From TrEMBL:
InterPro entries registered for this protein in UniProt: DUF465, DUF465_sf
Coiled coil feature spans: 4-59
One Pfam family cited in the UniProt record for this chain: DUF465
Organism: Skermanella stibiiresistens SB22
Gene3D superfamilies given in the database record: 6.10.280.50
Descriptive protein name: DUF465 domain-containing protein
Annotated keywords: Coiled coil
Superkingdom of this protein's organism: Bacteria
Record keyword Coiled coil present: yes
Length: 66
C-alpha cells in the first residue's frame, strides 16, 4: 500500500468519525437537560478532526492534480 492509499484510508476514517460526532451532538442536544460540557468536548473533537481532514486533503491534492 502506498502513502496516498494510506492517507486516503485515514481521510475516510476521519470523515466518518466527524459525521458520527454530528449525529451524537444532535442527539444529545435533543435531550433535556443536556450536558453542555459534553457537547463542548465533542465539538472540540470535531474541530480537531476537521483540521486533520484539511491537512490530509492538502497532502493528497497535489498528487491528484499532478
Amino acid at each position: 500500500m502506498n502513502e496516498q492509499e494510506i492517507l486516503q484510508q485515514k481521510l475516510d476514517s476521519l470523515r466518518s468519525e466527524h459525521r458520527d460526532l454530528d449525529d451524537v451532538i444532535a442527539r444529545i442536544g435533543e435531550q433535556a437537560p443536556f450536558d453542555q460540557l459534553q457537547i463542548q468536548r465533542l465539538k472540540k473533537r470535531k474541530l480537531l478532526l476537521k483540521d486533520q481532514i484539511a491537512r490530509i486533503e492538502s497532502r493528497l491534492l497535489p498528487d491528484i492534480i499532478a
